[in-house]
Amino acid sequence: MTYGRFSFGVAKADDIVWDVCIGRGGQALLAIVTYQVFTKSLTRTMEETPVSHDTFKAITLQNDTIAGLYLLTKDFLRTSGGRARVAMFWTILASVFVLALPTWLSAMTGYTPDIQPFVNDTIGNLIPAGEFRPSVYTIHDGHRLGPSYTRDYRVTVPWQGSDRYYSNYRNYYECYTYYDQDFWTSLLTDDCRMLWWVSEYAARYGLLGRNNTMTEFFLPSSHPEHQCKSLYRNGTDTTYDLDEYNFWGSCQQGSPIKYKWGFSFLLLYVFVGTWFVWSIGMYCLYLDSYAKSRLDISKRDMGIERAVLDLTRSIQSTIDVEKVDTSGNSALRRLVRKTNLSYEYLLLNTVVTSRWEQLRIWWQGFSVKKWLHEEKYWLCAMLGFDLLFALSFTVPVITLYWSPTCSFMPGFGVLWVLLIGKKRLRARWIYFGYWFVLFWICNIVWIVSYSF
Fold this sequence. Notes:
The protein is built from 16 helices and 14 strands. It has about 450 residues and is α+β, with helices and mostly antiparallel strands. The strands form 5 sheets. The chain has a 4-stranded antiparallel sheet. It has a 3-stranded antiparallel sheet with strand order 1-13-3. Helix 2 runs antiparallel to helix 3, helix 4 (about 80-105) packs antiparallel against helix 7 and helix 13 (about 375-390) packs antiparallel against helix 15.
């Protein structure tokens, strides 16, 4: 997957900009996301299960580093609790992806010389492949047509291209017809006209000008792709066999030397799939922490200062600070290595419930019958807007005055009203009014443009 024709300097600059901006910039962005999600998950875990000193430090102070990944891997088997182990395992995998991101993005991009097809002719010269054209007919007395025609004049057609017809792509020569009609009228060049004139002559008088006494005369396919077995080089009187053309053809660098920049399709495909799995996993980890953490709902979010303070409190509860004032870091590590941190003490005297618990309590007191009665007018409005949305695609009269492309907006606004709930009455009308006004602005533009 390559594009462009660049000089070496421009291609190299593209590669460097990609590595720095997308590779390193993307890694920095993912590191910010992972820190927020991992610390929320850590808080959620510490509400139920203690974690080691190294695990806490690796996630809060050494996130997305080789040292932090080493500490997490080392403590993985010592982690207790099924949920804590799953969260730890995913944290390790997600961290590996973030650390490998710049290398992966750099490996799947690069620049390559822009090569062009050439054909080795009979005397050893490399001829650009574009100088050859399929030869359909040979007019042996072509000089009779005028001074610009040779005795053995080759009737050639342009090279194959592609275009879109309805919803299908098809290949064709520029002189291709569709059911005996000049379908590609914009491409009827002089070469194409000559092809049809010779074809008509052959149909009427036979090949080599002999009288045609057959009741039917079958011409080659109007799409000469499968009939042309010879190629004619422009500016010469030489015809080449198609098999020889393919055998002696090769790709070489042109002059001046240019480069293409692009992606490895295989690595790009694998990266997109891996990134999708990573995104789903990170969202699930975030959703679990958001819904079931009691400290998260109380706005006790994690950061560098919060982590340092909690880590200090844990260390001070384990060792006598005054006795280790002159000790080195290695001695301190041996003292705190088996220290565990937990937030269970923060929840002993609190009545804060998690969002999941609040949702469960709300659902227990929810009555569908009561809700349908209270929201009957909004539900009828949504059904009416949805009906107009469906009819705008099928009924021409409604299509004139109710734009199909934006007719979903009023119903979408009512859906927001139902999701917001009765307690936020002002927000309900603001959301509905926004989508309703936006629809009518788009709809008026539709009506005016449709009328003209």
